[in-house]
Amino acid sequence: MTRPVRVAIVGAGPAGIYAADALLKSEVCQDPGVSIDLFERMPAPFGLIRYGVAPDHPRIKGIVKALHQVLDKPQIRLFGNVSYPHDIGLDDLRSFYDAVIFSTGAEADRALDIPGIELDGSYGAAEFVSWYDGHPEVPRTWPLTAEKVAVLGVGNVALDVARVLAKTADELLPTEIPDNVYQGLKENKALEVHVFGRRGPAQAKFSPMELRELDHSPNIEVIVNPEDIEYDEGSIATRRENKQANMVAQTLENWAIRDVGDRPHKLFLHFFESPVEILGEDGEVVALRTERTELDGTGNVRGTGQFTDWDMQSVYRAVGYYSEELPKLPFDVASGTVPHEAGRVIAGDAPMPSVYVTGWIKRGPIGLIGHTKGDANETVACLLEDRAAGRLAEPATPAPEAVEAFLEGRGVRYTTWEGWHKLDAHEQALGAAQGRERIKVVEREGMLDASGA
What we know:
InterPro entries: FAD/NAD-bd_sf, FAD/NAD-binding_dom, Ferredox_Rdtase, Ferredox_Rdtase_adrenod. It catalyses: 2 reduced [2Fe-2S]-[ferredoxin] + NADP(+) + H(+) = 2 oxidized [2Fe-2S]-[ferredoxin] + NADPH. It is an enzyme of class 1 (oxidoreductase). Keywords: FAD, Flavoprotein, NADP, Oxidoreductase. The chain is α/β, with parallel strands linked by helices. The protein has helices at about 15-25, 45-50, 60, 65-70, 90-95, 125-130, 155-165, 170, 180-185, 210-215, 235-240, 245-255, 360-365, 370-390, 400-410, 415-435, 445-450; strands at about 5-10, 35-40, 75-80, 100, 110, 120-125, 150, 190-195, 220-225, 265-270, 275-280, 285-295, 300-310, 315, 320, 340, 345, 350-355. Helix 1 (about 15-25) packs across helix 14 and helix 6 packs across helix 7.
């Protein structure tokens, strides 16, 4: 092969961009070269960095600067506002590229099978995150009439949801939240936010820094019940072996022994409370029922048969993300992932030629953004191994310009990397007009117009 190896990556979030970076750093990039096209359903790149990270976490959004450096490379093209499989399908991709990597991530909420989950006032955390992050495909308004709110889960998404619900709109105004989100949060009635976890402090999945940031708001009083500070042998072992778990436990201990202050919004962190039912009246949430649990010696818990009904008007479940099934690819419904071996997609008992996965669609929605690099490296190594062994299928039309002609022939209004820079500058200009760093454009058409698509 004398021409560059052509690779399509479906999904331009961190997982897809890290895969592109791994290809650029490989020997094949030197000889015979590599040509990479990223296809993204949204008009803008960066996936959950743009639509899944809380707006008051600019530190995490700083990762975008590193991703920019990858996308600036001349071997990479971005095609935004291109949906798989509606605008371009697997057979189309195979006809243009030597290999296809799917990195579509996970945007939906994992189901929680308890009675009452369907009531009005019961929400998935991912839905709420998409709203306050200005995702183009969600409603522009959100009902924020509840004074007492429950958040189910003890991971960083639960913290983000609880923190945004407990903060004032003016606290979040300096961030990039869209105007509709600011106006919505100004109407927020929440005075108490309760976070529930079925296990103990040593098993919480919070990041230490994110947990401590809860206490930085002048409007949020974080409260931990001293009775929830409990450890068994398994918990002690976890603290001893896991530095982050130990730091989280220490922070919770410190909060449990201090006096409760007078900040206006209360944020309670409850442990050993397992949600078993959402109670309703006239189809709306009125309470959350939990069962008290206890440690069993291994760090796991068992029910005690002691139940509590908590007065709540809304419940947010933050129990994990779930990936959408990709047409023409196998899918494991239980895990929400595409079956694979080290990134090679497995259909039945055999690999699908030239088709790979990376990121959350590969391993499930676990780990931090940095863990995605290892995923990408493993997948790209398999792709290059298959190329060296002659296992990649030769595309029928490998010319780069054929892709543009194909999309234009289908009437797809696609954005480019240059278009992202225009949208980026537009959002910064909107922010500067109000003394803010940026104001995110929400509507898809507005994003397309600003990008010059």
